[in-house]
UniProtKB/TrEMBL annotation:
GO BP term, pick one: cell adhesion
Start and end residues of each Spondin domain: 32-222
Source organism of the structure: Athene cunicularia (Burrowing owl)
Protein name listed in UniProt: Spondin-2
Subunit structure: Monomer. Interacts with integrin.
Keyword Transcription attached: no
NCBIfam families assigned: NF038123_dom
Record's keyword terms, sorted: Calcium, Cell adhesion, Disulfide bond, Extracellular matrix, Glycoprotein, Immunity, Innate immunity, Metal-binding, Secreted, Signal
Source organism superkingdom: Eukaryota
Lineage: Eukaryota, Metazoa, Chordata, Craniata, Vertebrata
Signal peptide as annotated in the record: 1-27
SUPFAM superfamilies xrefs: TSP-1 type 1 repeat (SSF82895)
Gene Ontology CC, one term: extracellular matrix
InterPro entries, sorted: Spondin/Thrombospondin_T1 (IPR051418), Spondin_N (IPR009465), Spondin_N_sf (IPR038678), TSP1_rpt (IPR000884), TSP1_rpt_sf (IPR036383), TSP1_spondin_dom (IPR044004)
Encoding gene, per UniProt annotation: SPON2
Length: 330
């Protein structure tokens, strides 16, 4: 009996110890940020550069009502317990509203609630909109050793529900913060609107789809504004650079000065994206014209749907003639 009691007590102690260890482990952040041992806080300057030019993206490039531009940036520094958006997963209501209409209130509320409930958010940051497809905007952000991840979204304007952004990029490398990080950005579809073109009318996706990357061949439809079947990959539509702000001798951040002084417009060298001419289907053949008992001619026509650009394939002939026998001759 004493042996049985000893075994029972030993099992009880081991079980209690196991529960304590598991409870402690579950309170730790998960993911790569759990191994960040850098100094507690770091500040970064974040510079967003739009590269959405008519040269790089000639197809259906928006010139007016509204012209090509970028919304304001909305971002967050956080732990791996929080996710603003993620490829191949469903967008939240907040991301949907931001991607479709540029409205940030619901997304802000989602971020604040995540910070309050599971303390997964360290800070929110934002940067002004850019009124053209090419330009720069910037702001500052702060990361923490327990919240070293950065996520943000910027809406492509105009578009159905397209955006660019970063999902959970860690600025921490073990025991130190990265000095500078640059990332090329490509367009994403939030999966909430089924429009194919920049100016498509609102057409809700039912049921909602997941967030997907838009490529030169996907969606595989000629009407898609990013459909360039001759390209292997799209050129970057934007770029983001984050530079660690160093403290000067007085302990104050030293400003990052590598920004345009007078305007947010930038001049960027990009490879030209060739755009082939697109034409309609042939019309029906017209009436046969000519003198009776002699060979006449009839014509069919087509028209240009999309003008070529950047040394793309030129347009073919828009009319075609063939011989025929005139009808209704006496």
């Amino acid at each position: 009996m004493e042996n049985l009691m000893f075994v029972y007590c030993s099992c009880k102690v081991i079980w209690t110890l196991l529960i304590t260890i598991l409870g402690y482990a579950s309170s730790l952040p998960v993911g790569d940020d759990s191994i960040c041992t850098a100094e507690e806080l770091a500040k970064y300057s974040i510079i967003f550069t739009g590269k959405w030019s008519q040269t790089a993206f000639p197809k259906q490039y928006p010139l007016y009502r509204p012209p090509a531009q970028w919304s304001s940036m909305l971002g967050v520094t956080h732990s791996s317990d929080y996710s603003m958006w993620k490829k191949n997963e469903y967008a939240s209501n907040g991301v949907r509203d931001f991607a479709e209409k540029g409205e940030a209130w619901v997304l802000m509320k989602e971020i604040e609630e995540a910070g309050e409930k599971i303390q997964s958010v360290h800070g929110i940051f934002s940067a002004p909109a850019i009124s053209s497809g090419t330009g720069q905007t910037s702001t500052e952000l702060e990361v923490h050793s327990r919240h070293p991840l950065v996520s943000f979204v910027v809406r492509i304007v105009p578009s159905p529900d397209w955006f660019v952004g970063i999902d959970s990029l860690s600025l921490c490398e073990g025991d130190h913060w990265m000095e500078e990080v640059s990332v090329d950005l490509f367009p994403y579809d939030a999966g909430t609107d089924s429009g194919f073109t920049f100016s498509s009318p609102n057409f809700a996706t039912i049921p909602q789809d997941t967030v997907t990357e838009i490529t030169c061949s996907s969606p595989s439809h000629p009407a898609n504004s990013f459909y360039y079947p001759k390209l292997k990959i799209l050129p970057p539509i934007a770029q983001v650079t984050m530079v660690k702000i160093k403290k000067n001798q007085l302990g104050l951040p030293a400003p990052y000065l590598n920004l345009p002084a007078k305007s947010n417009e930038i001049i960027d060298t990009v490879s030209e994206t060739p755009l082939d001419c697109e034409v309609s289907q042939w019309s029906s053949w017209g009436l046969c014209r000519g003198i009776c008992r002699k060979t006449g001619t009839k014509i069919r026509t087509r028209f240009v749907l999309l003008q070529p650009a950047n040394n793309g394939m030129p347009c073919p002939n828009l009319d075609e003639e063939t011989g025929c026998e005139p009808e209704n001759c006496v």
